Amino acid sequence: MATHRFAPTGYHNVIGSLSPALHVADGDIVVTETLDAAGHDKDNIQRAPRGNPMNGPIFVEGAEPGDSLKVEILGMVPTRDTGFTGSVLASNVVDPRDVRGLPERANAIWRIDREALTARLLEPVAGLEDLTLPLSPMIGCFGVAPSLGQAISTATSGEFGGNMDYRLLGPGTTIWFPVSAHGALFFLGDCHAVQGDGEIVGTGIETTFEVTVRLSVEKNRMIVWPRGETADDIFTIGNARPLDQALQHATSEMLRWLGSDYGLDKTAASHLLGQVVRYDVGNVFDPAYTMACRVSKSWLKRR
Amino acid sequence: MATHRFAPTGYHNVIGSLSPALHVADGDIVVTETLDAAGHDKDNIQRAPRGNPMNGPIFVEGAEPGDSLKVEILGMVPTRDTGFTGSVLASNVVDPRDVRGLPERANAIWRIDREALTARLLEPVAGLEDLTLPLSPMIGCFGVAPSLGQAISTATSGEFGGNMDYRLLGPGTTIWFPVSAHGALFFLGDCHAVQGDGEIVGTGIETTFEVTVRLSVEKNRMIVWPRGETADDIFTIGNARPLDQALQHATSEMLRWLGSDYGLDKTAASHLLGQVVRYDVGNVFDPAYTMACRVSKSWLKRR
Amino acid sequence: MATHRFAPTGYHNVIGSLSPALHVADGDIVVTETLDAAGHDKDNIQRAPRGNPMNGPIFVEGAEPGDSLKVEILGMVPTRDTGFTGSVLASNVVDPRDVRGLPERANAIWRIDREALTARLLEPVAGLEDLTLPLSPMIGCFGVAPSLGQAISTATSGEFGGNMDYRLLGPGTTIWFPVSAHGALFFLGDCHAVQGDGEIVGTGIETTFEVTVRLSVEKNRMIVWPRGETADDIFTIGNARPLDQALQHATSEMLRWLGSDYGLDKTAASHLLGQVVRYDVGNVFDPAYTMACRVSKSWLKRR
Amino acid sequence: MATHRFAPTGYHNVIGSLSPALHVADGDIVVTETLDAAGHDKDNIQRAPRGNPMNGPIFVEGAEPGDSLKVEILGMVPTRDTGFTGSVLASNVVDPRDVRGLPERANAIWRIDREALTARLLEPVAGLEDLTLPLSPMIGCFGVAPSLGQAISTATSGEFGGNMDYRLLGPGTTIWFPVSAHGALFFLGDCHAVQGDGEIVGTGIETTFEVTVRLSVEKNRMIVWPRGETADDIFTIGNARPLDQALQHATSEMLRWLGSDYGLDKTAASHLLGQVVRYDVGNVFDPAYTMACRVSKSWLKRR
Description:
4 copies of one chain form a homotetramer. The first copy, chain A, has 303 residues and is mostly beta strands. Chain A is 10% helix and 37% strand. Chain A has 2 helices and 21 strands. Chain A has helices spanning 243-262, 266-276, and strands at residues 3-6, 14-16, 22-24, 29-34, 54-60, 68-78, 82-86, 107-113, 118-121, 133-134, 138-144, 151-153, 157-158, 161-163, 174-178, 186-192, 209-218, 227-229, 233-240, 278-281, 289-296. The first copy, chain A, has a 9-stranded mixed β-sheet. In chain A, strands 3-5-16-11-14-13 form a 6-stranded mixed β-sheet, with no helix packed on it. Chain A has a 4-stranded antiparallel β-sheet with strand order 7-8-9-10, with no helix packed on it. The longest helix of chain A has 20 residues, at 243-262. Chains in contact: A-B, A-C, A-D, B-C, B-D, C-D. The A-C interface holds A 90-92, 96-97, 99-100, 102, 242 and C 90-92, 96-97, 99-100, 102, 242.
């Protein structure tokens, strides 16, 4: 199991069947520095066009369509002292009649304290003078090449992953993506220091990170939507609009998972989910919204 | 501040401008026993037609349109040793293509241990032999008479409250409803011993409770959607379909609340919500879905 | 078959189980003058609060739950020389990002020529100097008391009908509503001289009419959603949000109708609908949207 | 203005920035034979994988990002005596509770009479023995390479066009696509002999055609969504889920068009659209649904 330091020479604003920038073996570790969502690096120099430029693709040996790519998020270290956020709620997350009353969008800068692991607004905002947020790093956008040789904008998401902006996708979490291309072709970027549910100002605190992931192939583990696991929970992710449909995808995927790995037929799974399921909202800003279906591992026995 | 023991002589399957069954003063406490969602009482005798029969309406003196009715949930004591649940996921919470593969719906019975405060399936289900759920009581359906003299089925919800099925609406929580009728006309019922997010099998563990609430009038506190408070959080509730719209209503209401009571203009509120908001899914089974917008009180200073 | 001239002494902003204002026999004709959506009569005098005040309820003898009420729209004669419209697209029918660019809403007045049966804007608008619209009268809001004794705002719609704002609901059209209350309890009002699909400025040309309808009971004709018939077509109506769900309701109802009355099982109905169905958009302004599923009678043979 | 007979040597199941298969000059005519949606040619031989294989891409000289590609559909001649359809309504177009009652999907074959220009089911279906449908050819899927070098499955649609399945996209219609790539890179395929609104059985009558189009570049005509024109109407197209959002996109695009080309500011456009707009439903089967916003040219004066 090798560890690769991956320093991209180019970035991509799509996730798709592009020429690999790195080849790794099954189980290898990759350490790489990501740009922020606007394409700036840790020195605030523009290295790529805005819109979630990705590091990748990383070709994982042995990965073929029908497999799953297991991505363990081993670490995320912030590499810059500033991050930026949108300053106003997105027009699609308030009542349409209230849109006119929203101020114009601007960018706000946050000071990131990399020792204390906190973030504060650089310019004081009335009422938030004391606001100091603990960092809670997460990967906003990552995934594998979608089916059919598609290449899809990093502004959106799908079965292949993409711009999901789900809070739990940080260090300690493992996520599985359905492999659709030879070598899986993994991409990542768009990391956030902090983010509320929904990414409702159109951003988290957007900054640069050094990210460490381990990439492994699970052969013939056919999944439809991304699946994940934290210390406490398992979860599945649906990406679609409206949220209702994202919730349907995530729930259907959980039903499949509970059936294949936890010995619960559809009735048993219904009993369990009906009384213990938790739904988490990922992105409600992008063309596809994200909903996670989550179950505490305390209720489950893996077969 | 009197305490009323309210033993209804009739029940209602709507929330609306009906003849009051009880008059209370501002700040009074009401103790009442609720039927289960199917209309059965603590002795399993059918007392009302199925479909969330309500205790009420309770006329609260001094409540007028433009006020808010504050409902403190002081206690919920289960009064029966059994509860029932639907046995299969609702057809609207899975991928439409997966509906055909779901089993037919039946009712399952749960044994409620009122000493240990736990629930277990009465008939064993493969894979769930050890499942013992701690009770987490909540009120599924409550609210006040809607505007215009409307009377609306307890199968759904709206600005006035109704069948929201939100997990946090249990003991220790306070909720405010917008008053639209003289005396507010408060109803409650449909209590659950346990329920996952979304009420995705169409029920929580449906059983009977003795519920204790305090009802107070907040004069001229004009709100549009229900607001609530727990020990840790404040939240607002939107009821609509799709979930996207419920989320919009809840977010707009939170924006109003942060502005009026916490000194945050729309930019400040956007900064805060963008990085700390939590969304919780209530009902995704009924005609109107429910979404809560929740903020930790640790970030807020009430003016 | 009697003809009743119905001159209401009061109006209602809900459709529900209220005290009948008129009793008619099965098959009787009713002639009545409606207020405009803002509650003004033909002399522009405010007679009722704004929000689609209804004439009714009309108790139809013999109508019981499980029956259908057949409403033949025999005539609509405009009774005023003016109508009003909203002046700007509703904020929910444009991209949320475009809402800020819309002007503020105002009312515009239209001159109705009751001889020529046309309408023109009273104040000239640049680019529309020559716009003369032929009248195409329709009933915006009508229906029967909903189930469970509910009373529902005339701002919205449901299985019982309500504020559907569907262009084809004018003279020559017949519509059936599912009866849920003793006597059906029929209401009507909110008539439009002209209206585009969707009622996307929040109004049609809102004015007053003398409306003539025949009300008949079809015993034991159990329907779920409104059904209709014009000279050329049959149609079903779904009312819900999002439009996707309204379309589902309307399609399911058409499937039932083709099965029971036209001898088409679900496969045959699918073949036919798949290649000839037309969908029409009713209201996309109100809490529930309206979609009609329409089939040309040229493809159908009634059994 | 040359005419090119384009006989593809390969087909694509995505629309994107692929290597051009043909170069044409601005204003040239292309004649090409399309496969059916399942990849079969006029001799029923499989030539490409199923899923709307496309002819293309066609590089149009002079087309650059910021331009529009004008596509005039000059002719569509059916080239096979059979077409196929799905035999049952898609599970997403009926009430979720009705899905279980639908039969299993199969393919049905239709006999196409290329002299009479009609289609009939090959195997008799009870109740449809006399059903003979006049052909109404249309292009189900066409468009130009999307932005950012994306390549997107022909199962869906977006600003760039794609699988819109809108009935009016047949001979005599002109459509404009927003150019995002050097040379526009035009694709077409998936033609239907007949199709109802919504493509609600998942297909029209899928068969092969010889299609003739003229491709022209309109320099610096920046559009966001496809626009079209028939003999009688102009229309704009939105592609998204839910239908509500597709309707928003189409309406916003029509507002832009009426402003730039017809001298109507937002108030004037609102007045006109409010009373005369028509909405047509394209695809409600695919990941993105399609809604057209249509206005009769009789109301418009081009500047």
